[in-house]
Specification:
The chain is mostly beta strands. The protein is 0% helix and 54% strand. A five-stranded antiparallel beta sheet has the order 1-2-3-4-5, with no helix packed on it. A hairpin with a 7-residue loop joins strand 4 and strand 5.
Length: 131
């Protein structure tokens, strides 16, 4: 699943909303008339058990969005989002419960509107009970 809610573009609407970085971010940036949207992406994940009950996980996700305004002489849209995640998971002995410590960083970069560039970090401690 996605680490953050993100709505890059809706090319079928008259007004497009490329920035919805996280629930805490309420800034909106409009791109009227954007067409020919292309998304390139990369997602890599690795989980390595280091001892009985302890696993280290790493994840990297990149999305690059590009579009243009058709016949207008306006520069096109070029934005990128990168997400980095690292976690340590400990499975409690004699149970299916887990404790996970995770840290993530989210970066949004917009070459057309650098004032809307964003970097967020987050750390979580989760206790999961499986039935």
């Amino acid at each position: 699943g996605a680490l953050f809610q993100y709505t890059p573009l809706d090319p079928d609407t008259q007004l497009n909303l490329p920035v919805a970085a996280s629930p805490a971010d309420s800034s909106l940036l409009y791109y009227p008339g954007l067409t020919d949207v292309v998304r390139h992406g990369l997602d890599a994940r690795l989980a390595v058990p280091v001892s009985h009950g302890v696993t280290i996980g790493l994840q990297y996700d990149r999305s690059h969005y590009q579009g243009n305004y058709g016949a207008l002489l306006t520069p096109g849209f070029d934005a990128r989002k990168d997400t980095y995640l690292g976690n340590v998971t400990y499975q409690l002995p004699d149970s299916s419960s887990l404790i996970t410590l995770s840290a993530r960083q989210y970066r949004y970069e917009n070459s057309a509107a650098p004032n809307f560039n964003l970097t967020q970090t987050r750390a979580d401690l989760s206790f999961t009970v499986k039935f």
